[in-house]
Design a protein that fits this description.
The protein has 481 residues and is of the alpha+beta class. It is elongated, with a radius of gyration of 25 Å.
């Protein structure tokens, strides 16, 4: 059969080449190129092409082996729009996608298909391997009522993470109304998953939108989101436009006494276990992104601190206001800066990158106000310096002649932290010798090891050390001139 496969030119444009293949083929997006490369079909790639996200190993191996990466996973910059020969395969850097189907402006981080999942440290006689002992999971399942959950909400003993529930992607009034309709019809709804802290407060990890809908209808004062008026119902059409106060006493009691099942991870469960469990069971509605899950599980001043820095004008100007806040990509970028600023990237050995970021949130909570203020100043200085140095290309993969790439998180944390570690004189020298620095940065982008360190499995300790050492050497070298 004949399959049209694009080739990447110097400007990131695509031109079709015809390749003869034997047997049925059903490939989409980057997966097509991965598998063609793996089968020995080599495409011409110019050194200045925008191949972020593919990362050809140079040894004939393809990254992303056996991974199905289709259009539902990412969007591609519109630098090939209107090209007749673009066909259906786009080779721009893959982007994270929000719940509204729009790109977040941040490059999707890929995992290496060559990496095999290692067995955890625990293994039993039945062949069960896990990163922790199963008996360390303390989950209590209890049946409660709507009234009892609302009572906990009023007393501040259930944490809905208010700034999280207001984010884009929350259920519409129609969706919330239909959940209330289900309760009125005595149709069971999905179970809730919550985590208990040392003071018996419950953090809602799976079920935020369901509980928010219930609270908005019955007790809107506990959500600050305004009361819910029923609309768009499927069966109880006579209830359109009604509020909770419009219901009969019998129906009010029915709602308040509705039984709900809550799976509660009890206090004493190790944080690493808690995070791992919730990342697996969070399947209701729109699955939480890692930073959304961290936000739900970690209370304290770190929430507002991340939000404030993500909304700071210096961050918006440095990133060209291109990072969406919908799935907390902006807050994760800030967190990654803080995590590496509070540690030594040159000696980074943490293999569990998610756990590394969770621990960083707890560390930020434990800091004094003065220390957090100092970190905020360093962050703003780094953002302004990055803007002065790189302009609109700040924190983006940059190849001569290429289009504008999306923000790369690994590059963001590496450049920002290294800039924060310089003193004012060194930063001024970098800006004074900007052209020299940019020339060397373009050369660094051609380095295979560095490119991989900001593209695939970026949480790998060796890749963390590699990218931080390269950029530190570059900045120190130029500023010392």
């Amino acid at each position: 059969m004949i399959l049209e496969v694009p080739d990447v030119g110097a400007l990131g444009r695509v031109s079709a080449k015809r390749l003869s293949l034997v047997g049925p083929v059903a490939l989409t997006g980057h997966d097509a190129v991965y598998r063609l490369a793996r089968n020995g079909i080599r495409q011409r790639r110019r050194a200045t092409g925008t191949m972020a996200g593919l990362e050809d190993s140079g040894g004939g191996r393809a990254i992303g082996r056996n991974r199905s990466v289709g259009f539902q996973r990412y969007a591609v910059p519109e630098d090939v729009a209107g090209e007749q020969d673009a066909l259906f395969l786009s080779l721009g850097p893959p982007l994270e996608i929000g719940s509204d189907g729009r790109p977040t402006g941040v490059e999707l981080e890929l995992t290496s298909g060559e990496d095999e999942e290692e067995d955890g440290p625990y293994s039993d006689g039945d062949g069960i391997s896990a990163p922790f002992r199963p008996d360390s999971i303390k989950i209590h399942t209890e049946t409660t009522t709507v009234d009892l959950l609302l009572s906990r909400l009023r007393e501040g003993m259930i944490d809905l993470a208010p700034d999280f529930q207001r984010r884009a992607g929350i259920w519409s009034d129609v969706m919330q109304s239909r959940l209330i309709e289900s309760l009125l019809l005595r149709i069971p709804i999905s179970n809730f998953h919550m985590a208990q802290d040392d003071e018996d407060r419950w953090a809602v990890v799976d079920g935020v939108q369901r509980l928010t809908a219930i609270a908005r209808f019955i007790a809107p004062d506990v959500t600050d989101l305004g009361p819910l008026t029923l609309r768009g119902l499927d069966y109880l059409t006579d209830f359109h436009g009604r509020s909770y106060q419009d219901l009969t006493g019998r129906l009010k009691i029915r709602l308040r006494e509705t039984q709900l099942v809550v799976h509660l991870i009890q206090q004493g469960t190790p944080e690493a276990v808690k995070y791992n469990v919730f990342s697996r069971i969070n399947t209701g509605g729109l699955p939480l992104k890692p930073q959304e899950l961290r936000h739900a599980l970690v209370r304290g001043p770190v929430r507002a601190f991340l939000a404030d820095l993500a909304e700071d004008p210096s961050f918006g100007e440095a990133t060209g206001w291109s990072v969406s806040n919908e799935r907390m990509a902006d807050r994760e970028m800030v967190l990654r800066f803080l995590a590496f600023r509070l540690s030594n990237p040159a000696s980074h050995t943490r293999k569990d990158f998610d756990r590394f970021l969770v621990d960083a949130m707890y560390r930020v909570n434990a800091l004094t106000e003065d220390r957090r203020a100092q970190l905020a100043r360093e962050f703003r200085v780094a953002m302004r310096c990055a803007r002065d140095l790189f302009g609109e290309q700040a924190f983006r993969k940059w190849h001569v002649g290429s289009g504008r790439s999306p923000i790369n998180m690994a590059l963001f944390e590496t450049v920002a932290v290294n800039l924060a570690l310089l003193d004012d004189h060194e930063r001024d020298r970098l800006v004074a010798f900007r052209e020299t620095m940019l020339d060397r940065f373009v050369e660094l982008m051609k380095d295979w090891d560095f490119d991989r360190s900001i593209s695939i499995s970026t949480g790998d300790p060796k890749k963390v050390r590699t990218r931080f050492q390269h950029v530190a050497r570059l900045f120190r070298g130029v500023s010392a001139q």
